[in-house]
Amino acid sequence: QFTVPEPWLFTGGDLGGDDTRDSDVIDIVGATGASGALQSGPAVGRTAMFTLGEGEINMTIDAGVFQTVVLPTPPVTPDTPTPPTTPDTPTPPEDTKVLAAQTELPNTGLDNQTLAIIALALIAGGWLLVNSIAREDEDLITTGWSERI
Question: Mean of the pLDDT values across residues 25-29?
Answer without folding.
Answer: 77
